[in-house]
Amino acid sequence: MTRATGQAPKISLRDVGKQFTVRPSKDQPEGTTLTALEGITLDVAAGEFITLVGPSGSGKTTLLDLLAGLTRPDTGQVLVDGKEVTGPGRDRAVVFQQYALFPWRTAAANVAFGLEGPGSDGRRLSRKERTDKARHYLELVGLSGFEDRYPHELSGGMKQRVAIARSLAYEPDVLLMDEPFAALDAQTREQLQEELLRIWRSTGKTIIFITHGIDEAVYLGQRVAVLSSRPGRLKQIVDIDLGERSGDGDVRSDAVFVEHRHQVWSLLHDEVRKAQEAGHAKIRPDGSAPDEAPQLSKGQLSKGRAA
Amino acid sequence: MTAPTLTKDAAAPAAPAARAADAGRTAQPAGARHLPSLVRSSARRAGRGIWASGAILLFLLLWELGPTYLASPSTRVFLPPLHEVLRALGSLLAKGQLQNHLAASLTRSASGFGIAVVSAVALGLLVAWYRSLDRFLNPLLEVFRNTAALALLPVFTLLLGIGETSKISIVAYAAFFPVLLNTIAGVRTVDPLLIRAARSLGLSNFRLFQKVILPSAVPTIFTGIRMAGTSSILVLIAAEMVGAKAGLGYLIVNSQMSFLIPDMYAGILTVSLLGLLVNYLLVAVERHFSRWRTAVGSQSN
Ligand SMILES: Nc1ncnc2c1ncn2[C@@H]1O[C@H](COP(=O)(O)OP(=O)(O)O)[C@@H](O)[C@H]1O
Ligand SMILES: [Mg+2]
Q1: Are A111 and A134 spatial neighbours (Cβ–Cβ below 8 Å)?
Q2: Based on the domain organization, do B53 and B97 belong to the same domain?
């Protein structure tokens, strides 16, 4: 496996922190600052698949926004290829949980969206080149023949496939995925996990994958980074080694898998309990109710929360 | 639409050979077995068509027979039966008068409507994009919007005379606000997730506007345009009734004053047909631009 030994990391987080100002409310007329992330230091090697789990509200999306360049950190640095991230760039692509497809564009036109401006080399693609590329990437995600469908004519799984194709189409090095499969049914999710691994192997992208599913994190990641409850700190990084996963066997019932799963589960369970004890769960600024306290069961953390 | 002809041809073996062969070729996939169901479904469709136009037909029938058999002779003068109105319409057409009035009205409403759409969309986009401009203009726009256009008719006439300018202006005024408000609403309600997605792809403000905000607002803008189309005709007719030398509104009022009652009704009938036609066209355009929207529960709404 490629690991950051010797060669420079693709992505480097150095003591990254992020705060938000909370708008004044009845209880706190002053308005307060909320620390979403604190002291995150993490290196990700080129071509690595790392998954990120954490209780709801632990700052996973915030971290992804920082990596995407949609927001800037308050402390520390976010580096990609050794250069500080100052804004969105074509070397990184984001896949959102809610697909974020443009509903007035067909599947192919959605995939071509990122190809319409000048490319990273300043060259503009011709219409035909764009169409060919869109077709190619739709094929890669298994959607040949669906080029002319509008998003509302596609199922959730197909929409997410289009979104993945759109992200891949302008050929970024890094894929940032924020709970991309959380809204899908179990079967579709497993299918897409499978395909994502296949795409990752064949394209060699660096993938940062956020999830609240422990199974998903362990199944996909070469490493699983566990975030603590708010303020989000990096609690531990668990190395996952499931050996060669080429066969049709059920990896998820392997002893090694179960062991890893349990390890991540315990780490998370502590965090969720701590969050509750500290009263964080009572008034969660993300709007979830106290009685929706994260439940750990079947490898799923708090199902009710939307990203 | 071709179904009734098809069944007739297939059911009548005596039809000329060429036509039968032709029909046979097209009807082949359906097969003779499906004939009864085909007949039934087209009968059902025809039945539904009759029912849908039933109220209209009844109304026209009442208009034709009511004045003759129900109304007193004095009322009959003010409410002539339908065939007299149609005859008046025919003679107005034959003399070319109706065309002239129609052309005058159409020119005015199209110009006013066009000016309104262009300026309201432009201003709407600016107001929606620049929050401070919105805060500055909004109170004033709110006052204007809630001032009925027709209440301002005397002002327009005083300032711009009774010529074309004042009529085009009042049409533009009336059509302006529905387009403006819908444009603002359309831009405001763009899914923030789509903006995030576009930003993550590194789009500049201008590209974001052109490629995400504008297309996403287009259906809402067209709803405003359709509303504006209806109100521009309404206001124009009223304006033409007050002071004009041509136009459908003038035709109606002038016929009334000259006691040409059937002509007056012919004018009214033309206005309602024109209104229907304009609305139909604008609905078609609106639908064309909203076809990516799902009827209910679309994630973009
Ligand atoms: N724009 C914002 N303004 C204020 N608070 C925010 C904002 N974005 C996120 N937060 C807060 O930061 C914390 C982390 O949020 P988020 O990154 O969305 O968590 P996660 O994705 O792990 O569930 C939450 O408590 C959330 O309420
Ligand atoms: Mg999130």
Answers
A1: yes
A2: no
**Nearest of A278, A275, A244 to residue A59 by alpha carbon:** A275
Asked if the structure places residue B75 within a domain, the reply is yes
pLDDT tens track for A98-144:
889 999 999 999 999 988 877 666 778 888 888 898 999 999 888 88
| Displacement of CA B90 from its chain's centroid (Å) | 24
> With a 6 A CB cut-off, is A150 part of the ligand 1 pocket?
no
For the Cβ of A285 lying below 6 angstroms from any atom of ligand 1, the answer is yes
Q: Give the position of tokens 């500049």.
A: B204
Model confidence pLDDT, tens digit, residues B149-199:
888 888 888 888 778 888 898 899 999 999 999 999 999 888 999 999 999
> What is the A36 CA–ligand 1 centroid distance (Å)?
6
Number of helical (H) and strand (E) elements in chain A, helices listed first: 7, 12
Is the CB of A62 within 6 Å of ligand 1? yes
B216: contact with A, CB 8 A cutoff = yes
d(CA B294, CA A153) in angstroms, rounded, equals 9
- Considering only the beta carbons, identify the residue of B193, B212, B300 that sits closest to A96: B193
**Same domain for B179 and B60:** no
- Check if B203 contacts A (Cβ < 8 Å): yes
**Residue B167 shares a structural domain with residue B262:** yes
Using DSSP's 3-state secondary structure scheme, residue A288 falls into coil
Is residue B224 domain-shared with residue B115, that is, in the same domain? yes
Quick check: is B279 in a domain? yes
A59 lines ligand 1 (CB under 6 A): yes
Residue A125, ligand 1, Cβ within 6 A: no
ipTM for the assembly: 0.80
For the stretch A66-95, pLDDT in tens is: 999 999 999 999 999 989 999 898 889 999
Asked if the structure places residue B222 within a domain, the reply is yes
Q: How far is A264 from chain B (nearest CA, A)?
A: 30
Determine the residue of chain B that is closest to A163 in CA distance.
B197
Nearest residue in chain A measured CA to CA from B212: A102
User: B28 in a domain, yes or no?
Assistant: no
Domain count, chain B: 2
For testing contact with chain A, the best of B191, B200, B211, B290 (most A CBs within 10 A): B200
Q: How many Å apart are CA B176 and CA B15, to the nearest integer?
A: 58
Number of CB pairs, chain A paired with chain B, less than 8 A apart: 61
Dihedral, CA atoms, B125, B300, A144, A108, nearest 10 degrees?
A: 0
Spatial separation of the C-alpha atoms in residues A273 and A267, rounded to whole Å:
10
**Cβ-defined contact of A98 to B216 (cutoff 8 Å):** no
What would the two tokens of residue B112 be?
A: 């006013």
Domain CATH code at residue B189: 1.10.3720.10
Instruction: Mark whether B127 and B258 lie in a shared domain.
Output: yes
CA A236 to centroid of ligand 1, rounded, Å: 21
Q: Tell me the C-alpha distance between B10 and B29, whole Å.
A: 13
- Say how many Å lie between the CA of residue A286 and the centre of ligand 2: 10
Residue with tokens 């059902």: B44
